[in-house]
């Protein structure tokens, strides 16, 4: 198994990505508990030796996938903003919630949140990632005299945003990413005039 600090070759990264994509597809098809390493390597068109080069077992693969997606959710929500930037909510546009496009582009993974037999510990991860991002990176400016930077309010925001995104997934992503972004911006503008990126 490769050390986390060791940089993998582009080919190795592609191989791991193919394994993860096959894993996600199989969980959506038959549930986490019914997916075997054999299923994964057959779907990804590799052999077991290749799988064990990178992962000790199925839970190891699941944990790496969970961790990577958790960090990508946080990063996608903040990477377009420079630290120290002050953003007005009335200047936000269709590109302002990149998390929406990320969810749409990774629908197969986000559909796992809707399954009963899914990756252990996955439920609640979306809201937790959004909450950590809000706590670590954003200082909100309230409309009126309200404390919208409290932990309680940011938890409320995180769970509300996650709920809206997962409801979107439940409808089969019926609305476009632009429509969902517009809804989120309208909600955000109802209580915040802007925010600073830490």
From TrEMBL:
Residues 13-73 form the HTH tetR-type domain. The keyword DNA-binding applies. PROSITE patterns: HTH_TETR_2 (PS50977). Pfam families: TetR_C_8 (PF14278), TetR_N (PF00440). This is HTH tetR-type domain-containing protein. One of its GO terms (molecular function) is DNA binding. The lineage of its organism: Bacteria, Bacillati, Bacillota, Bacilli, Bacillales. InterPro entries: Homeodomain-like_sf, HTH-type_Tx_Regulator, HTH_TetR, TetR_C_Firmicutes.
């Amino acid at each position: 198994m490769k050390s986390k600090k060791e940089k993998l070759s582009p080919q190795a990264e592609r191989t791991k990505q193919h394994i993860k994509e096959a894993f996600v597809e199989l969980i959506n098809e038959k549930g986490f508990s019914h997916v075997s390493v054999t299923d994964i390597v057959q779907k990804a068109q590799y052999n077991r030796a290749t799988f064990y080069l990178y992962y000790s077992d199925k839970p190891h693969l699941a944990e790496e996938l969970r961790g990577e997606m958790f960090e990508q959710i946080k990063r996608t929500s903040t990477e377009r903003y420079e630290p120290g930037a002050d953003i007005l909510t009335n200047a936000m546009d269709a590109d302002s919630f990149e998390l929406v496009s990320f969810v749409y582009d990774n629908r197969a993974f986000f559909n796992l949140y809707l399954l009963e037999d899914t990756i252990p510990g996955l439920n609640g991860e979306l809201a937790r990632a959004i909450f950590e991002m809000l706590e670590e990176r954003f200082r909100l400016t309230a409309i009126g005299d309200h404390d919208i930077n409290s932990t309680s309010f940011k938890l409320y925001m995180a769970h509300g945003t996650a709920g809206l995104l997962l409801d979107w997934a439940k409808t089969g992503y019926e609305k476009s990413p632009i429509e969902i972004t517009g809804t989120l911006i309208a909600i955000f503008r109802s209580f915040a005039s802007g925010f600073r990126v830490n």
